[in-house]
Structure formats: C-alpha cells, structure tokens
Amino acid sequence: MNLRDPRTQLSWLLILIFLSASFFYKDFFLLKNLVIATSSAVIFDFLFLKLRKIELFPPAAAITTGVIISLLTSPNLPFYEIIIASFVAISFKNFARGINRHIFNPAGIGVLVSSFLFHHPVSWWAVSFQQTLPFYLILLSPALVSMVRMKRFAIAAPFLLTYSVFTQFAIHSSSLLTQITDPTLLFFSLVMLPEPQTTPNKKTIQIGFGIFVALIAIISSKIFGIIDPLIFALLAGNLIFYRLK
Amino acid sequence: MNKSLLIGVVILVVAGVFVLLNNQGAKKTNTPSSTFVATTPPQSVSPSMSPSPSAMEEKKVTVTKNGFEPQTLKIKVGTKVTFVNNSGSTISVNSDPHPTHTLFPFLNIGVINDGAMSSVTFDKTGTFTYHNHLNPSQTGTVVVE
Predict the structure, then answer these.
(1) Ramachandran area for residue B31 (φ above 0: left; ψ -120 to 50: alpha; else beta)
(2) Up-side HSE of residue A43: CA atoms within 13 Å toward CB?
(3) pLDDT in tens, A157-167
(4) Are residues B13 and A149 in contact, defined by beta-carbon separation less than 8 angstroms?
(5) Cα dihedral across residues B37, B41, B47, B53: positive or negative
(6) Dihedral sign for Cα atoms in the order A122, A125, A127, A128
(7) How many angstroms separate the CA atoms of A106 and B100, rounded?
(8) pLDDT (tens digit, 9 = 90+) per residue, A176-223?
C-alpha cells in the first residue's frame, strides 16, 4: 500500500473519522459495518475488473468508497443492505462509464440507491459531530489539503457559500457561520463533492458545478421534500456536467 | 500554496471554536434548553418527578423500534419534554432538516443510549420538527401553543 497515494491517505483519514465516531457513540461494535462495507467493495471491484478484463490494481478507490458508505449508512442497518450499497457503488463505478471515467460518485450512488430500495434514508451518522466541532474540524483538515491539491477548491467554496446563503433565505435557519461549519455539510463539501473522477477540471465549470449542486440540493429539499438532497444533487450534477469536463 | 493551506486549516479550526463557544454561550443564556437527565431505565419519569417552583408541566415521548410515540405532541409553553429511549438501540434526537440539523439548534439533543432519557424545555410557541439521526425515517413534531 502506497502511503503517498492521496487516495490511500484519504482512506486512512476516513477510517480515523469512523473510529472517532464509534468512540463518540461508545459503540465499537459498529466496526463491523466498516469491515463489511470496505471488504465487499474491494471484492466486488476485483470481480468487476476481472469481468472487464482489466489488470488488477491496488483497490484504494474501492476502499475509500467502502469507508464512505460505512460513514453514511445508518449504523443499525442489516448487513445485507450495506453489501448491496457497496455492490451498487462498485457496479456503477465499473459499468456506468464514459470515456475512461465513471459518471457518478460511487459512494453517493450506492447509498442513495440502497436507501430507495430499503426505504432507509441516508443517516450521515459518523459525520455529524455537532458536539465536538473543533475536534472534527482538525480531523477533517487533511481533506481540505487534499481538495486543494486536487484543484477542486473552486467546487467546494461556491457550493458552501451558495447552499448556506440560500438555506438562510429558504428556511431561516441558524447563523451563516453555523451553517457553513455544519459538520455534515463540511464532510460533503470536502470529501464527496470534489471527487476528481466525476467532477469538472476547468475552473469556471467547477464554479458552475458547485453552484448547480447547491441549488439542486435546496430545490429538491424545499420543493420536492427529498430527504437526502445533498447526494441527490451531487449525482444530478455528475450527470449534467459529465459532458462539460 | 502551503501557506494558504495552513491559513485555511487555521480558519476552519478558529471558526469551529467560535461556533462552539457561541453555542455554549447560547445554552447558558437562552431557552429552550436541553439537559441530559439520566442513564437509568425510564419508568420513573412522570409529571410529579421533579416539581419546580413554577409547577412546570412535563410530557414524555417514547422512542420504540417503530419511532417516536406520540409522533405529534401538543404542549403548552414552558413544558418540559423527556425523550425516553426504549428502542433497543442507540438513537440520536436532532432538529430538522436532515442531515444538517440547523432549523432548531436547541433540539439537537444528540445521543440517547438504550434505556436512557434526555429532556428539553419548550419556552417558545411554534411547530418544532425533529428526527432520529441514526434512522432518519423516524420523525416527530412538537406543537407548542
């Protein structure tokens, strides 16, 4: 395992977040979800790569996908729902592809499809550290570094700003700063939104992508009452902006 | 580049500390407020459990495997509502909207272990919606008149 690989570093960071959340909830039995999600994601990735007759390579991306699934899906789910989320994620990663790239954020599509199938909304249980925000921000800061290295800051910043400002208008919620530093929103902005394979490379299009995802998230939540607006909006953005890379 | 990264990280941390301190300040001075009550079984919860000088009313919302019961609770201003977790697993009571919980910050009660309870006092009129963050399909409403 190459520790200098940004995807490997991100995986370790996410595992650390998972362990912290388990500690916060005082339930290390939750580790089983991490093991189930990551191992099934890796196994499915190997199987599908074989099917596609592609040479096997270190499964850093599959591990990242698995860990994100375990961070987002409800900790009380039966094991087969987690496996199906991983299956869907890795299926889309391997088969819903354009030119050399997958179209949808794998973890996003995995958790959203499984939530529709089983009527269990995405929980985001491990990334909602309201009670220990400073610790969480320190924990998440390497993701900020990673995002800047990947040149995806122009996605996250417009998204955060647009989403927070419009949410203030739409639902008159808490202060703008509280909104921007919301743990779930930060995790989405720094980890899920900037996934390099599924997001635009040009700066101007990146800004448009960030604003688009924010507006779709607000509209889908406020007007259509979608329970998981962030992931829905991300996948819509992946689809619409796929051709505009 | 490294400098700007460092600045970004510092801003994030400072913002977090600021928000935390703000929240703590708000908890001390503002109502409604939430208080963790006990980790003991919930049988002892009743309106007469802790009489206060202002004869504060108390209501109970029980969380089972099926969700919050009652799902909609109508109360008067100043009523203390105790959430009792009888679901068999850990729950986390949080304000809507899911997953950001920003609509009614005082309702971000957080984790309640199985068999434990936690209370919040509603000192303003309005309709307050919340959910179990670990199972967001479980939702509830408190109507304060």
Answers:
(1) beta
(2) 10
(3) 999 999 988 88
(4) no
(5) negative
(6) positive
(7) 22
(8) 777 788 888 899 999 999 988 899 999 999 999 999 999 999 898 878
What is residue A30's DSSP assignment? Answer: G
Residues for chain B: how many in total?
A: 145
How far apart are alpha carbons B102 and B100 in whole angstroms? Answer: 6
- Tokens 């939540």 locate to A221
What number is the ipTM of this complex?
Answer: 0.74
Of residues A168 and A126, more confidently modeled: A126
CA A176, A182, A188, A194 dihedral sign is positive
∠ CA A245-B4-B10, nearest 5°, is 115
Q: Give mean pLDDT, residues A27-54.
A: 92
The total number of residues shown for chain A amounts to 245
Show which residues on chain B lie within 8 Å of chain A, measured between beta carbons: 1, 4-5, 8-9, 12-13, 15-20, 22-23, 89-90, 92, 94, 97-103, 105, 108, 110-111, 113, 133-137
The A-side interface with B (CB below 8 A) comprises 24-27, 74-76, 119-125, 128, 130-131, 133-134, 136-138, 140-141, 144-145, 148, 167, 171, 173-175, 177-182, 184-186, 221, 227-228, 230
Q: Which two tokens stand for residue B84?
A: 């009792």
Q: Which residues have a Cβ under 8 Å from the Cβ of B90 and sit 6 or more positions away?
A: A25, A27, A75, B111, B112, B113, B114, B134
Could you give the dihedral angle defined by the CA atoms of residues A56, A60, A66 and A69, in that order, rounded to the nearest 10 degrees? -130
A70/A64 Cα distance (integer angstroms): 10
Structure confidence by residue, pLDDT tens digits, B47-103 = 333 444 456 789 999 999 999 999 999 999 999 999 999 999 889 899 888 888 878
List CB contacts of A178: < 8 A, sequence separation 6 or more: B19, B22, B23, B102, B105
